[in-house]
Amino acid sequence: MGFGLLDFLFEFVGVLCFLGGGILIYVALRRLFAKSLPKLSGNGKDKALKSLRIVWPKPSDDAKLVTDGVFRRMRHPVYTGLLLMGYGIGIASGPVPQLFFAIALHVVLRYKAELEEKFLAEKFPEYPKYVGRTGRFFPKVED
User: pLDDT digits over 98-127, tens only?
Assistant: First the structure.
């Protein structure tokens, strides 16, 4: 037996987080594919290798730094979308074990983002300035 209104509110907020995260991922990936990521062409093996390369934190030789669209406010909107989806599932369905998986995902994505930022700073001299004006997972709050 649930708690009625409280259960509904948690489920509603969780669904909103999940949907918002999905939309953010979609918008961010469209921007990345339009600006920087390689087009998936070739045979099945080539497409699979290029797809795997996309999730690797080290930028490819022909990568471009994307700082417009949703990337204007945050450096890792795809990771933010994944976090929103993970926490949305945890909030909507209860704290155990889904919320713990969302927290573990947060730790993994933070580590991956730090590693990726190290590689991006090595490749793009303008990256530290970009870091100074944007937040990692959420828009930077100005003082």
Answer: 788 888 999 999 999 999 999 999 999 999
Instruction: Output the CA–CA distances (angstroms, integers) from residue 76 to 34, 61, 67, 91, in the order listed.
Output: 16, 20, 11, 22
CA distance linking residue 82 with residue 105, whole number of Å: 8
Each domain of the chain, given as residue ranges in start order, spans 5-55+76-133
CA distances (Å), origin 135, targets 2, 21, 40, 76, 109: 38, 17, 30, 8, 14
pTM, full prediction: 0.81
d(CA 6, CA 14): 12
Contact 124, 65 (CB under 8 A): yes
**Residue 4, CA distances (Å) to 1, 7, 46, 51, 92 in order:** 9, 5, 51, 44, 13
Question: What local confidence, expressed as pLDDT, does residue 45 receive?
Answer: 67
